[in-house]
Amino acid sequence: MQLDSPPAVDCAGIAHRFGAKWALRGVSMRVSAGEIVALVGRNGSGKTTLMRVIATALRPTRGAARVFGHDVTADPSAVRELTALVGHATGVYTDLTAEENLRFAIRMAGEEATAARISEVLERVGLAHEARARVRELSAGQQRRIGLARVLLRPVRLLLLDEPYTSFDDEGQAVVDRELAALRARGGAAIVITHDAERARRVTDRSVRLDAGAVVEAHAPRKVANG
Amino acid sequence: MAERIWAREFARVGAMAWKDLAVERRTKATLNAVVFFAALTMLLFGFALGADSETLKAASAGVLWLTVLFAGVLVFNRSYQTELDSGALETLLLYPGDRWAIFAGKVIANLAFVFLVEAVILPLAVILYHMPLERAPLAVIGVMILGTLGFVTLGTFYAAMASRVRAREVLLPLLLFPMLVPVLIASVEATQAYLTGDVMRDSRVWVRLLVVFDAIFLVAAVAAFEHVIEG
Amino acid sequence: MTEAVMERAATSGAVPAVPPRRPLLAAVTLLTLVGAELFSVLTSPPDRDMGNLEKILYIHVPCAWMAMTASLFVFLASVGYLWKREERYDMIAAASAEAGTLFTALTVILGSIWARPTWGTWWTWDARLTSTAVLLLIYLGYLALRAATDDVDRRARWSAAVGILGAINAGIVYESVVWWRTIHQIQSSPSSMGIMYTWGLRLNAIAMLLVLVYFITNRYRSFCLIRATEMMAEDAVLGRRAP
Residue A145 needs a FRET pair 20 to 30 A away by CA distance; which of B201, B230, C81, C124 works? Predict the structure, then answer.
């Protein structure tokens, strides 16, 4: 736990509603650099919504959140440089090849797309041999791994994973575990949404449980204020 | 520092345009349908207006532009469809950088699509409607380019919203077509003027209007885009 | 972060206070309207050719002016919203658009009613009438977009963008339609200024402006009431007492 650098994630009173329905009702939590936190709870408890708020995909109705010191509402561009979200949707274009998808992703991030970089990342997710295949022709698990590859193209400091252990195949899950370990080693942080309690215990440092949009328990080592 | 930022944004624009064009080239889904629809529209207008060749010739500029509008509008919602299908829109928005690059890239890709459709419509207008294109071919093409620029800019802009609500097929024309009245009038009048020898030099006023319209709305759409593309 | 910071950090912006009813404004508006009509009717004798029909223009022309004025309000409020991100600007824009739609529709209908005995047709492609009809469609598009959008934040942002572009285009549409009719030398409705008694017209313009302002302030008040109710429900759900 580093007390001198800003926490990886710092949420205070995050509340969000979709129309009349409240998905989050005042969530406060903190993730330190080097920590991997599991976000658990039943379906509909607001886990995905919270993750999207932190990733700057959603502007919260109330409350504030900071990622490594940058406010998600005031300075979203800085947050996006540091953060990557792997959600339920793959975000890949099924009519293009794996290679073309990655080339597009690198260029959209404003960087140069070299063949070396693309093949290196495809190796990491175990899809080097499928570089030229159209994504449409790959299996669901393989498509998700391309979504993950997209995220691994740049060094991120905060990784947000939405149910990787349900949606990824075995090889994909192995990649996830490997990348989380590497992330922790270089001082980054991650939040992982998962139902798999066994996995959570092995891979993460602690867990935060949401129910109906509020934090109901947060395991040691740190007590987190209830929203 | 500023040059680096601009270079990065232009690279993003290029990437966005390339992606839209690559996906369409792979599937060929939309373009074929739009071109056929355009040809069909030209034919139907011919039936509706009657067989008199003088009537057709007089109406050729108007029919040309109406066909561009009715067929072209099909391109815009589709341009956002690929993003919505695989949840790619949110991914797009989470890349670091300015949002206007996404807009500019899509405008460029949509321009390419609509120009392709017009490349089919224009010869059809000459054949079916006896459009005297040989009088001023370059001028008419120039007017088409100017008019299409305004059309595609506004179409791409409004489709960013319309493609994401329930009544998208109706909402896009409802929002877009009233805004295009100046473009329609100016393009048809300028084309008509060039085709009839431009005796009164009317074309100048209309071309000027098109240039001003395109400039104003390119700037306005780019500036407003980031407010409409978010969640 | 402390509770105070949480309260201040509310990202939906300050919810505007509900303004009071304005009976004085209502009374003044009504009196001015009635007074203007009485004055116009009493001081202008039936036109030689048109009979009493010309009196429609006392309403029709100021309505057209108010349609344009409302679009100016929509433009300013929309810019204000995108700049300040405060909900009240969105409410002013929406209220102005609704009032503007009303005045635009009235302009077109009255223009058509005037045209029928004058030209024998329900519609002339007269520059002003035509561009007003286009303006009506732009307004309707704005309202349709608002109706199709459920999320409050999205509706405000999208309406602001559409409102700004639409208001900019209002002037361009008018100019292009005027040139279009001029070039084709279509007979347009004669300038009503020469025929009308200007005092009657001025009084009506003032009355219409008051009606416009009255409609907008009333509608704004309705929006504030709706929003205040929603906020009370929000606070109840979040377990906080309303301030």
Answer: B230
Domain span at residue B18 reads 2-229
Q: Which of B171, B177, B202 sits opposite C144 (nearest CB)?
A: B171
CA distance B94 to B89: 9
Categorize the per-residue pLDDT at C7 as very low, low, confident or very high, splitting at 50, 70 and 90.
very low
**Which CATH entry fits the domain spanning A9-91+158-218: 3.30.559.10, 3.20.20.70, 3.40.50.300, 3.40.640.10?**
3.40.50.300
Range of C119's domain?
A: 24-44+53-238
B contact test, residue of C145, C159, C164, C186 with most B CBs within 10 A: C145
Q: Is C1 domain-assigned?
A: no
Q: By the CB < 8 Å criterion, does C148 face chain B?
A: yes
Q: What is the pLDDT of residue C11?
A: 36
> pLDDT digit string (tens) for C98-127?
999 999 999 999 989 888 888 788 888 888
What mean pLDDT is predicted for residues B40-58? 91
Are B95 and A109 a contacting pair at CB < 8 A? yes
Percent with pLDDT over 90 in chain A:
30
Chains that touch A (3 or more CB pairs under 8 A): B, C
Min distance B59 CA to chain A CA atoms (Å):
41
- Helix ranges (H only) for chain A are 47-54, 76-82, 98-108, 115-124, 140-152, 164-167, 170-185, 197-203
Contacts of B61 in chain C (CB under 8 A): none
| Inter-helix orientation angle B53-85/B100-129, to 10° | 150
Read off the pLDDT band of B86 (50, 70, 90). Answer: confident
CB B45 within 8 A of CB B125: no
pLDDT tens by residue, A82-116: 999 998 888 899 899 999 999 999 999 888 888 89
Cβ–Cβ pairs < 8 A, chains A and C: 46
Rounded to two decimals, the ipTM of the complex is: 0.91
Residue C8 has pLDDT above 90, yes or no: no
Instruction: Classify A48 as helix, strand or coil.
Output: helix
CB contact under 8 A, A25 and C237: yes
Q: Which residues of B touch C104 (CB under 8 A)?
A: none
Interface of A with C (CB under 8 A): 10, 12-13, 15, 17-20, 22, 25-26, 28, 59-64, 73
Query: CA A123 from chain center: how many Å?
Result: 21
The verdict on residue C12 lying in a domain is: no
Overall domain count for chain C: 1
Q: How far is C147 from chain A (nearest CA, A)?
A: 14
C-alpha distance from residue A119 to each of A126, A135, A177, B206 (Å): 10, 16, 20, 53
CB contact under 8 A, A88 and B16: no
- C-beta atoms surrounding A85 within 10 Å: 24
How many domains, in total, are found in chain B?
Answer: 1
Q: What average pLDDT does range A63-90 have in this prediction?
A: 90
Ranges of each domain in chain A:
9-91+158-218
Q: DSSP for A87-133?
A: -SS----TTSBHHHHHHHHHHHTTS---HHHHHHHHHHTT-GGGTTS
**Contact partners, residue A83, CB within 8 Å, separation at least 6:** A54, A55, A56, A67, A156, A157, A158, A159, A160, B94
In angstroms, the Cα distances linking C135 to B61, B116, C46, C64, C165 are 25, 32, 32, 10, 12
Position C17 in a domain: no
Closest CB to B185 among C82, C151, C176: C176
The verdict on residue C216 lying in a domain is yes
Confidence of residue C240 (pLDDT cuts 50, 70, 90): low
**The model's pTM:** 0.88
Tens of pLDDT along B183-225?
A: 999 999 999 999 988 777 778 899 999 999 999 999 999 999 9
